């Protein structure tokens, strides 16, 4: 009996380019809005006092510089995927591409874990429950299990649905701004706090600003997800630059205004350590205003959407890496009826459950700040590599016009991202590096097991970077 050659996979039709500038703008805004601003305003204020708006502004500047690099890559290679695809094209090192892909996956788990804790805190605030740290932990774990169930059943995330989610999330932030304006017009609030720096005793002003910016950056992430929509966007080389920068600018204005009104209305002592800071702002500014009672539930909706999107992304990335043969094959099992990657869903859920439990062991620490800071740590590391990738690919010419980030901005992007990653410059707590290290170590162990199983040779599959397109 002669062996037959494997049949080549049938060619797939290209994705439909159905996303115009308006839908793309709403997708970008909706992806950036979420847990960061709803839950971390108080933690940022705890580092710099009333000048909480400054770290958000600096984070916006750093994100914009990196966005320029993404714009050059996505307009230069509009049919590619995310960060790992570009890194693989630039350096061609299989293990580096895998690490970038796995770190992006890990950031999804830490982001969803932060969102679950914020969901629990807002649920307690919305229903005015008196539960301790254990009660909040149980609600957060239950929420992650609910997300797992929805993920297993199968969720079709479309851009049009994202429009609805974006409007709901944005409504909560606009509520804070309008109620803040109304309260200040009525003589409530103290604008002198907005320019008052109050840093922890063990930190100089500059280091405190760096620490707060490292945390505030969590609120600005999400824009990079739009890169994966390039193949479905009409005229991406022309539309993407204008729309992405517009989306970043809108969210930056909203975030800065929210942080200004927050510190002007609520004393810093009440914001610091508060896991539902915006709820406190609205209830302080308008305690008898009925709509104030809605904000905890709007916040729940916003962070729930963040958790679901990130757990969907994490499980699909893990499944994709297993399918390409760089992670153990048990992670690529698909349910026969639901057609969802159930083993990858279970694995990512187990990581999230363990992570939430681990960080909740310290009842005095801020779980959301710790997990949010870890998310920004992981993504800033990826962004540093992306900025370097632009410089590496500068000599690779294409036949169509594309955005050019210049030579200076990518260098600034590398420097600023690395600055916000390193412990002695960013002022990050050591726990963030421990969590990030554990997650990356898990990925390396899984990769080594697979590498050894393949006879110490990389599998002869398509490049690992291709799996980032599943994000």
Automatic annotation (TrEMBL):
<protein>
    <submittedName>
        <fullName>APC family permease</fullName>
    </submittedName>
</protein>
<feature type="transmembrane region" description="Helical">
    <location>
        <begin position="91"/>
        <end position="114"/>
    </location>
</feature>
<feature type="transmembrane region" description="Helical">
    <location>
        <begin position="403"/>
        <end position="422"/>
    </location>
</feature>
<dbReference type="InterPro" id="IPR050367">
    <property type="entry name" value="APC_superfamily"/>
</dbReference>
<feature type="transmembrane region" description="Helical">
    <location>
        <begin position="367"/>
        <end position="391"/>
    </location>
</feature>
<keyword id="KW-0472">Membrane</keyword>
<feature type="transmembrane region" description="Helical">
    <location>
        <begin position="161"/>
        <end position="184"/>
    </location>
</feature>
<feature type="transmembrane region" description="Helical">
    <location>
        <begin position="434"/>
        <end position="453"/>
    </location>
</feature>
<feature type="transmembrane region" description="Helical">
    <location>
        <begin position="134"/>
        <end position="154"/>
    </location>
</feature>
<keyword id="KW-1133">Transmembrane helix</keyword>
<feature type="transmembrane region" description="Helical">
    <location>
        <begin position="52"/>
        <end position="71"/>
    </location>
</feature>
<keyword id="KW-0812">Transmembrane</keyword>
<dbReference type="InterPro" id="IPR002293">
    <property type="entry name" value="AA/rel_permease1"/>
</dbReference>
<feature type="transmembrane region" description="Helical">
    <location>
        <begin position="23"/>
        <end position="40"/>
    </location>
</feature>
<keyword id="KW-1003">Cell membrane</keyword>
<feature type="transmembrane region" description="Helical">
    <location>
        <begin position="340"/>
        <end position="361"/>
    </location>
</feature>
<feature type="transmembrane region" description="Helical">
    <location>
        <begin position="243"/>
        <end position="268"/>
    </location>
</feature>
<dbReference type="Pfam" id="PF13520">
    <property type="entry name" value="AA_permease_2"/>
</dbReference>
<feature type="transmembrane region" description="Helical">
    <location>
        <begin position="204"/>
        <end position="223"/>
    </location>
</feature>
<feature type="transmembrane region" description="Helical">
    <location>
        <begin position="297"/>
        <end position="319"/>
    </location>
</feature>
């Amino acid at each position: 009996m002669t062996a037959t050659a494997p049949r080549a996979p049938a060619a797939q039709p290209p994705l439909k380019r159905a996303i115009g500038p308006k839908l793309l703008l709403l997708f970008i805004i909706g992806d950036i809005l979420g847990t960061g601003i709803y839950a971390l305003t108080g933690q940022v204020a705890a580092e710099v006092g009333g000048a909480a708006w400054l770290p958000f502004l600096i984070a916006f500047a750093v994100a914009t510089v990196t966005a320029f690099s993404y714009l050059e890559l996505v307009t230069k290679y509009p049919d590619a995927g995310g960060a790992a695809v570009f890194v693989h094209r630039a350096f061609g090192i299989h293990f580096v591409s895998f690490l970038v892909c796995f770190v992006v996956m890990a950031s999804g788990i830490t982001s969803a874990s932060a969102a679950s804790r914020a969901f629990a805190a807002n649920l307690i605030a919305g229903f005015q429950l008196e539960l301790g740290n254990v009660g909040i932990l149980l609600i957060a774990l239950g929420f992650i299990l609910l997300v797992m169930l929805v993920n297993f059943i199968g969720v079709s995330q479309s851009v049009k649905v994202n429009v609805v989610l974006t409007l709901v999330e944005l409504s909560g932030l606009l509520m804070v701004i309008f109620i803040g304006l109304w309260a200040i017009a009525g003589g409530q609030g103290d604008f002198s706090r907005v320019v008052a720096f109050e840093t922890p005793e063990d930190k100089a002003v500059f280091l405190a600003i760096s620490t707060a910016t490292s945390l505030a950056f969590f609120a600005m992430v999400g824009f990079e997800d739009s890169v994966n929509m390039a193949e479905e966007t009409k005229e991406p080389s022309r539309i993407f630059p204008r729309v992405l920068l517009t989306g970043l600018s809108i969210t930056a204005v909203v975030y800065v205004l929210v942080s200004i009104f927050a510190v002007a209305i609520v004393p810093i002592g009440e914001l610091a350590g508060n896991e539902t800071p915006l709820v406190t702002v609205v209830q302080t500014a308008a305690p008898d205003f009925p709509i104030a009672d809605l904000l905890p539930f709007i916040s729940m909706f916003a962070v729930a959407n963040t958790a679901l999107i990130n757990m969907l992304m994490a499980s699909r990335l893990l499944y994709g890496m297993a399918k390409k043969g760089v992670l153990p094959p048990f992670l690529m099992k698909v349910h026969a009826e639901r057609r969802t990657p159930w083993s990858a869903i279970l694995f990512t859920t187990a990581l999230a459950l363990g992570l939430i439990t681990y960080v909740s062991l310290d009842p005095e620490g801020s779980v959301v700040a710790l997990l949010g800071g870890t998310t920004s740590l992981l993504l800033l590391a990826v962004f540093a590599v992306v900025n370097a990738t632009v410089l590496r690919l500068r000599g690779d010419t294409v036949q169509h016009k594309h955005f050019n980030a210049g030579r200076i901005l990518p260098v600034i992007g590398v420097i600023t991202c690395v600055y916000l990653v390193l412990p002695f410059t960013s002022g990050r707590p050591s726990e963030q590096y421990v969590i990030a290290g554990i997650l990356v170590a898990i990925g390396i162990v899984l990769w080594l097991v697979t590498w050894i199983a393949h006879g110490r040779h990389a599998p002869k599959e398509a490049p690992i970077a291709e799996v980032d397109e599943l994000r």
